[in-house]
Design a protein that fits this description.
alpha/beta; Nucleotidyltransferase, domain 5; Rossmann fold; 5 domains; seven-stranded parallel β-sheet; 35 helices; 47% helix; 14% strand
């Protein structure tokens, strides 16, 4: 292969379908020989048809540029001759090669034949942690020059350099990794196996591959554990001038903000005095660096870590990747920061190696295994969320997550999670999430002990985490998946393998498998009966249905307790038979081969999972403790019974957080609770009370600089229909019209925030059907595929984009600069009165003599509203508009509470037409 010529091809076309008349408008080929680019070929091509407007916009190739160019018929033989005897390379060969083959056929030129390399497939294997495999994203990440994406000449050049970069990386991999990759590479869709073989030969003859520790033959890069916490003589900067000087070192465009410096002092004082404080720090003050600087100084002085906890793993990673680097630059000290997440975020190397021995691999599994083998040579954390895998690959990832701490000695030495736990005790900062922090009290080996302070960021979310920590979820699909792992006796399946082991090592006969089959059938039948009962039940409460989504409380199924008990009985009977097989073979395990031991280990793994499920069943359906919990069923009518979920959740989480706080106070640890929304007007202790924080703990607020919101504006659209007096379809039509007109005025870059997934979907579909925004990227949560962060990345990538969001998009989303021009609030964010948890809370409040609306519903809505506004202006000088379509903010007495909760920004009540005119004037300037 080294002596072959690679022909790296890129096409620009009028569309995706040559059979429907789409044609090539530009072709480029870059030739590589012996690791060097030797020559290039690039031509415009006359398609003999108009180039669609969106293609002209994408490629910047106009009808005028191709007018005098040859047609593909004129150059087809020339292109075919150049490609003969070469290895065809493209970034997505399924498109470029198939399109070219169609054009050769149309022009009566022989089809090309030979080996092909798809650099998308190759990149996914060799750069398994890349966030995107689009050519321009890879080029940016790997520092490959790409002057103009979607121009064939530039794209082909960048793809050629991508191939060379990949070939270079292949030769740096350990020999054992290359050998494991080569074994699986023959099932890939392009001829990458030859590249891997060439690299393997090179590494064997030159010994150039990296040498890494091996876990049962698999190379991995282990966690480096520091020997001790960095402690040094480091003084906290007392004066404003000294603080400003430090901040300027990390932020060249540092803008003096007194509230930020005062917030730093509040954090320092709390950590130093082992006290507790609640602090509201709005967007624009510089909250993260404001608490990190005093936290690091405190740790350096005491020689003990300070713990930083935030809501999501994404925010955890952002703190490490962005802000900690700046603190190191300010102080010119290499303080040690360790990120620690829940153990299921990390790979179990034992489970991974086990599955390599026994898995009959699909393409997705093979591909994911190859990605993991490369990733293990690079990762220092073992966090499987670093991997960018396919949907099918995600199922494999879920099987290799670390589920428990039962490990063999060689596993303990190589375990990433254990290594990071050790590193925590020798770090200045431990950065974690709320869930990990809360679960520490249950651990035998405590992590967050002997610390010198705790800072809880996004503190308003801590109560949700506390409640989720006591939540139990039964997913129909998950149950069926676990049940299926042990029940299929088809050739190659786990049960079939266990029957073979039982015959080989046991003298007990096969009666146990007959009993196992009978007991499974009884268990599965009762489970299916209950799934049918839940699927067919119609909620008694009027608001229990939103579109296709249906929610109802377990109390509506009163009278079926005997069926739930029968399920537990049949399940336990089945588990006993599974356990019998396990026990009989466990005593024979030393006589088994490694592969046989792996099958037995897999059987025991699923047995443990089934026992967990049995405990969940009792907890949800048969537990008498109902006073402090609520149980509900949720489903989607379009996918039954697959969409069934049963959830048991506590009504109040304050007792959980009180217990947590007390354990820290016993150790005399300073605690800082902080967020952009810790207070609401008229009740500054609403969030603190929910968190179980004592009334004696001070609540402090720091306002953003006066000029921060100078370029922000609030519009109340007063000619929208009243949400309470028109049908939902009429309101959705008005919302769609308002969104479309606002998009035309601003050029896109909009968030449209809903409180209902059903309304979001219907608005999105109406706008889609209208075709009025065909030139824009419409991204809808729950409709467009991908996680919240993936949707947000797509939103940032397109200059003309609109994001329709609900729930999580009201907060915790950062879109800086001109990437966001406006936020549209479709409805004030009240919880649905029929929400099961909300109803349980409201009932409890009413019983105590409180008003559920003023004491719960309204404050919660105001907090979400403030969070929604916080998406808009992320730094000083940004321009943006907050557009409210719900007229209740003007017509209801409580409306002023919402507006008073926002910063001092100009509020205008206008017609939709007037608002659009004003926006057009603003953006045309």
């Amino acid at each position: 292969m080294e002596n072959r010529t690679y022909a790296v091809v890129d096409l620009e076309t009028t569309g995706h379908s040559p059979s429907k008349g789409d044609r090539i408008i530009q072709i480029a080929i870059v030739f590589i020989e012996n690791g060097t680019i030797t020559h290039k070929y690039a031509r415009f091509v006359n398609p003999k048809r108009e180039i669609p407007a969106f293609i002209q916009q994408l490629t910047a190739i106009t009808d005028e540029e191709v007018l005098s160019a040859p047609t593909f018929e004129d150059i087809a033989h020339e292109v075919s001759d150049m490609l003969q005897g070469t290895v065809f390379v493209a970034h997505n060969t399924d498109f470029d090669l198939s399109f070219l083959q169609s054009e050769f056929k149309r022009c009566n030129v022989s089809r090309w034949s030979g080996k092909k390399i798809d650099t998308v497939e190759l990149s996914k294997i060799l750069f398994p942690s890349s966030s995107s495999y689009r050519l321009q994203d890879l080029a940016e990440e790997l520092a490959i020059e790409l002057p103009a994406a979607h121009r064939a000449d530039d794209d082909a050049q960048a793809t050629a350099n991508l191939l060379l970069t990949a070939l270079t990386k292949l030769r740096t991999l350990p020999e054992e990794t290359l050998s494991l990759l080569h074994r699986r590479s023959f099932s890939l869709r392009s001829d990458i196996s030859t590249l891997i073989y060439e690299a393997l030969k090179h590494v064997r003859t030159t010994a150039s591959g990296r040498k890494l520790p091996l876990f049962r033959g698999i190379p991995y890069r282990n966690v480096k554990i520091p020997t001790e916490v960095v402690s040094t003589r480091c003084e906290y900067p007392i004066g404003e001038e000294e603080k400003s000087r430090l901040l300027k070192k990390a932020y060249p465009s540092f803008d003096y903000r007194k509230p930020q410096l005062d917030f730093m002092d509040a954090v320092w004082e709390t950590l130093s005095s082992h006290s507790e404080v609640v602090v509201e720090v709005p967007t624009g003050v510089g909250k993260t660096v404001g608490y990190l600087l005093p936290a690091v100084v405190r740790s350096l002085q005491t020689g003990k870590p300070v713990v930083i906890s935030t809501f999501t793993n994404h925010l955890v990673d952002m703190i490490l990747e962005n802000e900690v680097k700046r603190i190191r630059k300010m102080l010119d000290i290499k303080c040690i920061a360790t990120v620690l997440k829940g153990r299921e975020q990390y790979i179990s190397l034992g489970k991974f190696e086990e599955l390599l021995r026994i898995t009959d691999e699909s393409y997705d599994e093979t591909f994911t295994i190859m990605q993991i083998l490369v990733w293990l040579t690079e990762t220092t954390t073992g966090d499987v969320n670093e991997l960018n895998v396919s949907g099918g690959g995600q199922l494999f990832i879920d099987r290799i997550r670390k589920r428990n701490n039962q490990m063999k000695e060689d596993e303990k030495l190589a375990d990433y999670h254990l290594g990071l736990m050790d590193a925590c005790h020798h770090s200045n900062l431990i950065i974690t999430n709320h869930s990990m922090l809360l679960s520490d009290s249950k651990r035998e080996r405590k992590i967050f002990q002997n610390i010198s302070g705790l800072i809880i960021d996004e503190a308003h979310q801590f109560i949700h985490t506390a409640m989720n920590s006591k939540e139990t979820v039964l997913s129909y699909m998950n149950w069926k998946y676990v049940m299926g792992q042990l029940s299929s006796d088809a050739e190659g399946q786990l049960l079939h393998q266990m029957m073979k082991l039982h015959r080989k090592y046991g003298n007990y006969g096969n009666q146990v498998f007959g009993k196992l089959a009978v007991s499974f059938e009884q268990f599965a039948n009762v489970f299916d009966d209950i799934a049918l009962l839940l699927s067919n039940h119609r909620p008694q409460v009027k608001g229990g249905q939103q579109g296709n989504r249906v929610i109802f409380g377990l109390e509506e199924l009163a009278g079926n307790e005997s069926l739930f008990s029968q399920m537990a009985e049949k399940m336990n009977g089945y588990i006993e038979h599974v356990q019998t097989i396990s026990s009989r073979l466990d005593v024979q395990s030393e006589k088994m081969s490694q592969k046989e031991q792996a099958f037995l280990s897999e059987w025991n793994y699923w047995l443990r999972e089934l026992k967990i499920k049995a405990g969940e069943w009792v907890e949800i359906f048969l537990d008498d403790e109902t006073e402090n919990f609520t149980v509900w069923i949720e489903k989607d009518k379009r996918s039954l019974p697959g969409s069934l979920n049963v959830v048991k959740s506590p009504v109040d989480g304050s007792a959980i957080t009180k217990e947590f706080i007390q354990s820290l106070k016993d150790e005399k640890v300073g605690i800082v609770w902080t967020s952009a929304t810790m207070t609401i007007n008229q009740d500054n202790r609403f969030v603190s009370r929910q968190l179980g924080i004592a009334d004696s703990v001070p609540v402090r607020t720091f306002d953003a600089p006066a000029h921060f919101y100078d370029n922000a504006g609030i519009f109340i659209v007063e000619d929208m229909p009243s949400i309470q007096h028109v049908s939902q379809s009429d309101y959705i039509e008005a919302v769609a019209d308002a969104v479309v007109q606002t998009v035309f005025a601003t050029g896109g870059r909009l968030f449209v925030l809903f409180t209902s997934q059903d309304m979001l979907r219907k608005t999105y579909e109406l706008i889609l059907e209208s075709e009025l925004l065909n030139d824009y990227a419409l991204i809808a949560q729950g409709v467009s595929s991908g996680s919240r962060m993936k949707l947000l990345k797509s939103f940032r990538q397109f200059s003309k984009s609109i994001l329709f969001g609900t729930n999580s998009f009201w907060e915790g989303v950062d879109v800086p600069g001109e990437a966001l021009s406006a936020v549209i609030i479709v409805r004030l964010p009240f919880s649905s009165p029929d929400d099961v948890v909300f109803k349980a809370k409201a009932t409890r409040l009413a019983a105590s003599g409180s008003n559920p609306f003023t004491d719960l519903s309204l404050p919660e809505a105001i907090l979400r509203f403030r969070q929604g506004f916080g998406r808009l202006i992320r730094s000083s000088g940004e321009r943006g508009f907050f557009i409210i379509l719900d007229r209740r903010i003007d017509t209801k007495s409580y409306g002023k509470r919402f507006l008073n909760a926002l910063p001092s920004v100009s509020v205008k009540k206008v017609s939709l037409e007037s608002m659009v005119n004003e926006l057009e004037d603003c953006y045309n300037k």
